[in-house]
Specification:
12 strands, 15% strand, seven-stranded mixed sheet, 3 domains, 447 residues, Rossmann fold, alpha/beta, binds NADPH dihydro-nicotinamide-adenine-dinucleotide phosphate
Length: 447
């Protein structure tokens, strides 16, 4: 069977076997439609049905999470963990707490995570999990009770050699703390390496908090360097104002970029003089407030509820909020306004139509799998430190992150050229990630 037809058939099977999971279908299509030249060069992958096996998670868990709110009322949330692939190492991937979470979101994230983790070159498999619990507006005590109930079920499926979760949307150091506390209590083991994203005060790694945002900017730096350019003096916009966005803004500013806009799910802040990052950190990290409050402090900044961030002219745009936040029309606006580099801090933030616009325009476009891999890579560094009961300095850990991101960029760049599409980081990232996983799957047999 010709490889294009084989891939079409596999995609049809994925859609049939996973009905209603649109984001998962999208993520699978984006990867496998780039793999025909790989199957042509390495027919053993088709012979051993590697793609078909990769598309089927090794294990999927769905569980009830009952908890009491502050009024004493019982609430019932739903928990998920999809352990997708473990040929390269223990399952690894974050937990997302957001009302939009359902199986299709967890599976899209877990699927992408397989290839992202492979790209880092570290010994980690792919997984993702979370809950439809919404931490917004909940007290610390409610978040703690929820996390304890969530971990009461999940703990039996985890372990430093089995499955190592971390944070994602709605899950930061506070939630990781409560989750680790309950894991320790249930198992009677201080198993630091079972969760990453811990506070450096009790087993976490320096730079993990900053890693995804910093890493995304390092990826931009490399893409621009390959074109003889740099970040210095460039105008930038960053969507979101959470963990990834904040540290992407920080690194852009350190490298001379002028960040003029950021957002949250309610609206957009535009501050032509440059975003005051200390204020964003205080509003979002300390006081857990909305980005709208930024404009109350800086009267020369504008806030537009439901505003369109991607209409703001810029040289560099970093989507760092959520999936499918940048559609075809927004991509066209960015290109028309002269944007020359996009890197995805978020997972799958650009719709397929948007990706086509970027690729046709020839601008530098770094897909999330490659561009935001610095977070999970630094989680793997946290696991290394835990295993050796060591704690590295900020400078040493940041240098490791920087080297990993340069390596990912180089590998993607070279693979894209080797497979006849120079500068196509989507193709490069998919091929490098897929081949590392596929070769390990062949070596480990049909399992
Ligand atoms: P946070 O929860 O810290 O921040 C998320 C940000 O995105 C908030 O500003 C939030 O606004 C906004 N947002 C979330 N959902 C939506 C939505 N549906 N529409 C519009 N805006 C939304 O999460 P992170 O910064 O950790 O994660 C952001 C992205 O980065 C996600 O795609 C995640 O998967 C990805 N990522 C994260 C990594 C990490 O290390 N944390 C690693 C790799 C990727 P609001 O507060 O209004 O909800």
């Amino acid at each position: 069977m010709p490889n294009a037809a084989r891939i079409e058939r596999i995609y049809g099977q994925v859609v049939r076997r996973n009905p209603g999971e649109a984001e998962f279908h999208q993520a699978v299509k984006e990867v496998i439609e780039t793999l025909a030249p790989v199957l042509a060069k390495y027919p053993e992958y088709a012979e051993h049905k590697v793609i078909e096996r990769i598309c089927e998670p090794e294990r999927q868990l769905i569980f009830r999470v009952p908890w009491h709110d502050d009024r004493g009322e019982v609430q019932i949330s739903r928990g998920f963990r999809v352990q997708f692939n473990s040929v390269l190492g223990p399952y690894k991937g974050g937990l997302r707490f957001h009302p939009s979470v359902y199986l299709g979101i967890v599976k899209f994230l877990g699927f992408e995570q397989i290839f992202k983790n492979a790209l880092t070159g570290m010994p980690i498999g792919g997984a993702k999990g979370g809950s439809d619990f919404d931490p917004k507006g909940r007290s610390d005590a409610e978040v703690m009770r929820f996390c304890q109930s969530f971990m009461t079920e999940l703990h039996r499926h985890l372990g430093e050699f089995t499955d190592v979760p971390a944070g994602d949307i709605g899950v930061g150091a506070r939630e990781i703390g409560y989750l680790f506390g309950q894991y320790k209590r249930m198992t009677n083991r201080y198993e630091s390496g079972v969760l990453t994203g811990k506070s450096p005060q009790w087993g976490g790694s320096l730079v993990r908090r900053e890693a995804t945002g910093y890493g995304t900017v390092y990826f931009v730096e490399e893409m621009l360097r390959a074109r003889g350019e740099s970040i210095d003096g460039k105008t930038c916009v960053v969507s979101g104002s959470g963990n990834v966005a904040i540290y992407a803004i920080e690194k852009l500013q350190q490298l001379g970029g002028r960040v003029v806009a950021c957002s949250d799910s309610n609206g957009v802040i535009h501050h032509a003089r440059g975003i005051d990052l200390a204020l964003v950190k205080r509003l979002k990290e300390v006081e857990r407030r909305r980005i709208a409050d930024y404009a109350d402090v800086h009267r020369d900044a504008s806030y537009v509820a439901g505003g369109r961030l991607w209409d703001i002219p810029c040289d560099i745009a970093l989507p760092c909020a959520t999936q499918n936040e940048l559609d075809e029309a927004a991509a066209r606006r960015l290109v028309e306004n002269g944007c020359t580099a996009i890197a995805e801090g978020a997972n799958m933030p650009t719709t397929p139509g948007g990706v086509r616009v970027f690729q046709q325009s020839g601008i530098a476009y770094g897909p999330g799998k490659a561009a935001n891999a610095g977070g999970v890579a630094t989680s793997a560094l946290e696991m290394q430190q835990n295993a050796s009961r060591d704690a590295w300095s900020f400078g040493h850990t940041e240098q490791r992150l920087h080297d990993i991101m340069s390596g990912i960029h180089r590998n993607c760049h070279e693979a894209a050229a080797e497979f006849g599409s120079p500068g196509n980081y989507v193709l490069g990232a998919n091929i490098v990630g897929f081949r590392r996983v596929a070769d390990a799957m062949l070596a480990l047999g049909v399992i």
